[in-house]
# Entry
Amino acid sequence: MIDDPREALLAVLPDGTPLERRLAAARPEIARVLAAAVSGERIDTEQLLLLLDVSGADLTALIATADQVRHTDVGDVVTYVVNRNVNFTNVCFVGCQFCAFKRQRWESDAYTHDNDAILAKIDEAIGRGATEICMQGGINPQMPATTYRDLLVAIRAAYPQLHIHAFSPMEILYGSRRMNMPFGPYLEMLRDAGLGSIPGTAAEILDDDVREILSHKKVDTAAWVEIITTAHRLGIPSTSTLMYGHVETTAHIAAHLALLRRIQDETGGFTEFVPLRFIHDNTVLYRRGLVEPRPRGVADLRLYAASRLFLRGSIDNLQTSWVKLGHELAAFSLQAGCNDFGGTLMEESISREAGADAGEYTSAEEIVAWSASVGRPARQRTTLYADPRPRPSPAPELVAHA
Ligand code: SF4
# Structure
């Protein structure tokens, strides 16, 4: 993994210089867009394209603006969720070119956990304070058609309070086909079995030409949108994601963000936006020479900052990824528009297999410390951004007057 030098990052981060001075130093066309964003005007896709390409004083002004807008819109508290990832199978036939996690079922390290093994992992997570279980896996044709529903039923029976965040749109597509059900009834069935929300993964870049290169067997853009909007309408919220840093152009990123914003305008069902840097090391895309490694650092901060401004008034929560960026850069991104540090995870394997080097688990104490390193308080949240602490009982006199 190559990183930009630390000094290069510190040079673009806010340093107490008033925003007006930062804007004055930027080119007029950039300063105009940034000033419009500060005043609450929506920026359009053309303006976003400008922002995705800035450098020098323009970039410093962009990041300072995103930091101020984040402060105005969601405050200074950094949120995080105590959760555990469970990747219940790594067997998958889809063959995404960016994925180093999948295995063929005959490979020696292929696995499929049964319900008892999954429940044991959840039990351990709850012992460590988890409020959420995040489950995704490979697309494994050996699993029975009812696997996803049965898993939810088993978890719900054992842990009625636990929030189950599970099954990407690719898994929903596959599961609904296996059960020969349209998306709506299938999602309703999963919701009624205990599904609390779904990861907005399998999005990568929502452009079918790009998807053809990345994974031609994967859920296409239209189906992804249909699954996500159907879920939202059924009261199943989701995250929204972007995988960047592979074969895409800035125009693809801008169109992807515009699509997410349109969906949010329509449904309001996205809880957050999570940009996910592509980890290239152990992937087919890299081995075949289809991608050039890009250094971690300044480009990530630029993308976060531009996303904060473009999604203003639409998606409030911008989540950094310590898994993809490493902890220090993730902490720096809190000064470039991010307000959420993601989850503790406890068992992160998808990015690790691709070559990520940040480990599998970050404790709540570490998240608090990383937030403090950039001068920010941190607070645990639920999956849906509520305070997980039990509410104090009302004082007797309040009860008397209720
Ligand atoms: S990203 Fe998911 S669907 Fe694609 S190959 Fe990997 S496990 Fe399979």
Q: What stands out?
A: The chain has two domains: 6-74, 78-297+314-381. Residues 92, 94-96, 99, 101-102, 138-139, 170, 215 surround iron/sulfur cluster (CB under 6 Å).
